[in-house]
């Protein structure tokens, strides 16, 4: 006599195996991410001109070359698949000075690119969302008889001031000079100079809001100011408060 199979038993066993396998894969991937990250203590194959204390390049890294001309400040966060390049191609002698410089506390979101064929400077405490593109080089199309990709590109230095915020997918073109605490809207394409404490949006980007010492933000902000966390509050207290609100 053939014993009928209990489909629920086999389904439960399959689900249990998948859960065990999934946990093992996730634990293994976390180990790989930790082992593959780049820090000053564990630089791996990368030999940056400077790799600051507390700075970490998440694994997997994007394309990185010319690191002998790249300076990364302290406590920078470089997310996964971020490209950092100095020079048009690897193994070039770019001279005695740094070409790409990140200040302290710079954050580059996942998939961002910083292409420095000539000088690119990003000021301290500047945060970039995912897939931001910063480049000192652009294709030229002077000769209509030649393919654009085969014409010698134009390069201009790029300077981004301290404390800026660059939204997801923002593009910073050669020659751009952003002042201090500039906000670049998601998807904006920036060229030229942007003054301190300005908000720019669009393609090409234009100033849509500025801060004035007398009149404040013009046009006025439409949202209330965030409430700061009181001094002395610990992370444990914040977690307990969040659990109370969920309950």
Architecture blueprint of SSEs:
Elements: H1 7-36, E1 50-51, E2 56-57, E3 64-65, E4 70-72, E5 77-78, E6 83-86, E7 100-102, E8 107-108, E9 113-116, E10 120-122, E11 127-128, E12 133-135, E13 137-138, E14 154-155, E15 158-160, E16 165-166, E17 171-172, E18 177-178, E19 183-184, E20 189-190, E21 193-194, E22 198-201, E23 206-212, E24 216-218, H2 235-246
Describe this structure in words.
The protein contains two helices and 24 strands. The chain has helices at 7-36, 235-246, and strands at residues 50-51, 56-57, 64-65, 70-72, 77-78, 83-86, 100-102, 107-108, 113-116, 120-122, 127-128, 133-135, 137-138, 154-155, 158-160, 165-166, 171-172, 177-178, 183-184, 189-190, 193-194, 198-201, 206-212, 216-218. With 247 residues, the chain is of the alpha/beta class.
Features:
alpha/beta, nine-stranded mixed beta sheet, 247 residues
The end-to-end distance, rounded to whole angstroms, is 54 Å
Spans where pLDDT lies below 50 across 5 or more residues: none
Number of strands: 24
Cα-atom radius of gyration: 24 Å
Classify the helix fraction into a percent range: 10-25%
What oligomerization state is this entry in? single chain
The topology string of helices and strands comes to HEEEEEEEEEEEEEEEEEEEEEEEEH
The major sheet is characterized as:
9 strands, mixed
Number of helical segments with 4 or more residues: 2
Structural category is alpha/beta
**Widest β-sheet, arrangement of strands:** 2-5-8-11-16-19-22-23-24
Shape: globular
Strand content: 25-35%
User: Could you report the average pLDDT, rounded to the nearest whole number?
Assistant: 90
């Amino acid at each position: 006599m053939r014993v009928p199979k209990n489909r629920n038993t086999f389904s439960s066993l399959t689900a249990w195996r998948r859960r065990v396998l999934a946990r093992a894969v996730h634990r293994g991937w976390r180990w790989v991410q930790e082992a593959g990250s780049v820090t000053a203590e564990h630089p791996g194959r990368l030999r940056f001109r400077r790799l600051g204390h507390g700075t970490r390049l998440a694994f997997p890294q994007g394309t990185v070359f010319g690191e002998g001309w790249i300076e990364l400040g302290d406590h920078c966060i470089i997310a996964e698949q971020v490209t950092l390049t100095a020079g048009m191609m690897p193994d070039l002698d770019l001279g005695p000075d740094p070409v790409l410089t990140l200040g302290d506390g710079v954050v580059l979101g996942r998939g961002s690119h910083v292409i420095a064929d000539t000088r690119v400077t990003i000021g301290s405490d500047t945060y970039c969302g995912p897939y931001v593109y910063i480049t000192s080089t652009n294709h030229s199309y002077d000769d209509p008889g030649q393919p654009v990709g085969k014409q010698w590109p134009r390069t201009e230095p790029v300077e981004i001031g301290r404390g800026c915020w660059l939204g997801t997918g923002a593009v910073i073109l050669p020659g751009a000079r952003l002042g201090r605490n500039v906000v670049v809207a998601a998807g904006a394409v920036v060229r030229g100079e942007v003054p301190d404490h300005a908000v720019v949006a669009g393609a090409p980007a234009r100033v849509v809001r500025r801060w004035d010492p007398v009149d404040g933000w013009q046009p006025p902000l439409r949202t209330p100011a965030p409430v700061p966390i009181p001094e002395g509050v610990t992370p444990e207290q914040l977690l307990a408060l969040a659990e109370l609100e969920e309950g």
